[in-house]
Amino acid sequence: MKTKRILVTGGAGFLGSHLCDRLTEQGHDVICLDNYFTGRKKNVEHLMGLKNFELMRHDVALPIYLEVDQIYNLACPASPVHYQYNAVKTIKTSVLGAINVLGLAKRVKARVLQASTSEVYGDPHEHPQKESYWGNVNPIGLRSCYDEGKRVAETLFFDYHRMNSVDIRVIRIFNTYGPRMHPNDGRVVSNFIVQALKGNDITIYGDGAQTRSFCFADDLIEGMMRLMNTENITGPVNVGNPGEFTIKQLAEEVITLTGSKSKIIYKPLPSDDPRQRKPDICLAKEKLGWEPVVPLKVGLVKTIEYFKDNLE
Length: 312
Description:
seven-stranded parallel sheet
């Protein structure tokens, strides 16, 4: 395999750091760019001594001048707690960040992958969601800064591809979990694990009957890298685990695996929270030869072990 010079924006984040691990293992020269809004240096400190790893503090909403072969654009807060904290900053990161990485890709003729999201489908009327589904998104709600920011980023990617022949890839990421999740990010897996390990009540919003599909980080990164390195495909391609679980089932599984005595309590459902979310991954299977292999229980055990060692 030819060694490439690869930029990972948001590289010190949850998924970005796992991607940096894989790329450096393969011998590529990796530039990890992060402004540490939600990313953390500790996620990549084990890579600091490597000759083929470079850490760069920079905000993707500002122009970037580098020479690279590939760009993975993962920069954006991805949990409701973080992306609603500064909604204007979130949409700037998505939109200006996309413009800046696409401008860079155009200048240096790099291939560029956009980490998009299942949130582009909103609260879906189609189940499971295929890539052809246009979505059901509230453009003026509390989650819109993220949902619409990611939708505009996809638009920009395809316009740069059509107008400037930029070599693009767009991946739509469904719920992903694993080690290095931020303990305070408000996502359901990390929330439940932290609450269970601390012996606190486990909080379910709504009646717990809403469904999610949970993909382990290792599986997701494998799908992302396959999309980047497959020829003659732009995407969008759904990457996620089609196994569907209710939020209540997840809470019960976490209680069992942690041996916690936590009780489940119920609170009102936040606005625009999707009732169900499940990827159709037929395209990923067909074009990338990819499907997830890590069962939920196995992934949860690994994630629980990480949080046991890293609870602050």
